[in-house]
Amino acid sequence: MSKADPAADTFRWRARLWHLTYVGHIPAELLLRQLSSVTKSNTVLGSSVVHEASDAEAPYAHTHLAWLWERAPNLHGARLMDVECEGTTIHPHAEHRKSIKWMQLVFTRYHAGHKLGGKSTFVAPVAGPWQQLPPCFEWNDYVLTEVSEASDLIEGAQLAGLGVRNLHDVLLLQNAKRLRPFEHNFERESFLPLWVPEVYASGAVGTLQIWGGVNLGKTEWALAQFANPLHVTERNDLLDFRPDWHDGIVIDKMLPRERPPAGFSLHECEKLTDYTLSASIRCLYKKVSIPKGIRKIVVTNERDVWPCDPHGQIVGRRVVQLQIFERTYR
pTM for the full model? Predict the structure, then answer.
């Protein structure tokens, strides 16, 4: 099987729960070795491998591999789980969901031969399933724990495998998703008067970079300049931007000059800091649109944090700099 062009491969492994189907009967140890090689700093909580004969879902001898990661990864490449078997590269069909309840049924029912189509049927596996789970692991307890610790109602419903069934469910989800006002640690009046360059105050330039030593209150001051700022500490935080809600963006604890995905390219910096034109920045699997007229404040310890800019498109034209010498708060 030919390899795809790496430059054109935009596939990302972002889900925790995966179910893969391979042509043929692949040795379980080979699949688990491949899974271990891509897991890196993450942890596989459990895995299941089963060999099955041809059936309605896969009309050929095939192997299923299912697993759940401890946390959502950020891996790139559609070919990460390809395996070499008997001189042939085998690429799997991949399926992922957010429901832990779904994965519980995969482990306890589907890989045990209980299939669901028009009606429930039993088809004995050819071999397996070979399953690995932590000692004393119990699926129902795990589902309840994960749901109870979910960050919000929507995530909890997804983990439990619950869908929207009526208007009341829609209302609950809309209320859960509604944005909350930003909680400032310090109000704007808590800070000492700070001279801001006129070109930024007047709106001639829309991005202010404040830089200086630590423990001066730079970040809190920057956040206090907006009613509902978006606080960006890594590139993908831009995914949370809502143009009808956020009145400013504070970029903090990251160096724009770092190569993507840690930072931004020169062209992206030009777009991100432009005040008179809208910007489109790619984050993970989608592009984030930022309309014109959104002010940004970049907080750094160093002054020279931008990519090499031979034509002077950033500092002076789109960004004005301000050094902080003393603490900004009273």
Answer: 0.58
Q: Extract the tokens encoding 4.
A: 């795809």
Q: What is d(CA 39, CA 65) in angstroms, rounded to the nearest whole number?
A: 15
Q: Is the pLDDT of residue 67 over 90?
A: yes
Structure tokens at 317: 């034209």
Predicted confidence (pLDDT) at residue 288 exceeds the cutoff of 80: yes
**How many Å is the maximal CA-CA distance in the chain?**
76
| Cβ atoms of 319 and 208 closer than 8 Å | yes
HSE, CB side, 13 Å, CA atoms: give it for residue 184.
18
| Architecture (CATH level 2) of domain 188-324 | 3-Layer(aba) Sandwich (3.40)
Q: Yes or no: say if 210 and 328 are a contact pair by the CB < 8 Å rule.
A: no
Query: Per CATH, which fold does 6-157 belong to?
Result: Replication Protein E1; Chain: A, (3.40.1310)
**pLDDT tens figures, 210-242:** 999 999 999 999 999 999 999 999 888 898 898
Contact assessment for residue 69 and residue 44, using Cβ atoms and an 8 Å cutoff: yes
Q: Quick check: 91 and 1 in contact, CB under 8 A?
A: yes
